[in-house]
Amino acid sequence: DAGVTQSPTHLIKTRGQHVTLRCSPISGHKSVSWYQQVLGQGPQFIFQYYEKEERGRGNFPDRFSARQFPNYSSELNVNALLLGDSALYLCASSYRDRGTGELFFGEGSRLTVL
Amino acid sequence: GENVEQHPSTLSVQEGDSAVIKCTYSDSASNYFPWYKQELGKRPQLIIDIRSNVGEKKDQRIAVTLNKTAKHFSLHITETQPEDSAVYFCAASPTNTGTASKLTFGTGTRLQVTL
Description:
Chain A is mostly beta strands. Chain A is 0% helix and 50% strand. In chain B, the strands form 2 sheets. In chain B, strands 2, 4, 5, 9, 10 and 11 form a 6-stranded mixed sheet that branches. In chain B, strands 1-3-8-7-6 form a 5-stranded antiparallel sheet, with no helix packed on it. Chains A and B meet through strand 4, strand 5, strand 9 and strand 10 of A and strand 4, strand 5 and strand 10 of B.
């Protein structure tokens, strides 16, 4: 079985631009979460979606948005990019929205904002 | 919200020695505590986890202990090997609040196992 897949793996944008990151969860997993990992730090929770509904939002500005599709894949959108948005964006999937807690992470999308 | 502190930030041990990484958390509602290993340029991978109804869990050379009263938990690696070299993250989550995927991570410990 394929693990969590993310695209693109690397991308470079300039300040003020918009970016869309994509994630396909493990087959059968209905919950997708997004995390931002700045170099040298632990991942920070951005969003969780379960059955296409937002179930949690971290402390990120409204420039960050996400959605989940009927096939449980997900997109993370960031508008008006700032230099500080440069980070590794990790997608994680799990079977349920509560109870098990175990997350399976993708390899991430490394965003560089110039 | 939850705050997780992790120490030390770097740890160097000789092959065969033990390594201990410690974390504290602030939210008494947290009841799920996973540990992730992240090699350079790779995804975080779950190596062991513990729930609040258990005080200790062991998996071969890796063990985790939890003290809910003191709000701290620790990772113990015995007989370290060079392939254990990586960054280790602790995390905490309240799994019964509808946001099981909302993990709060520590800042990481870079473990270096030298020959």
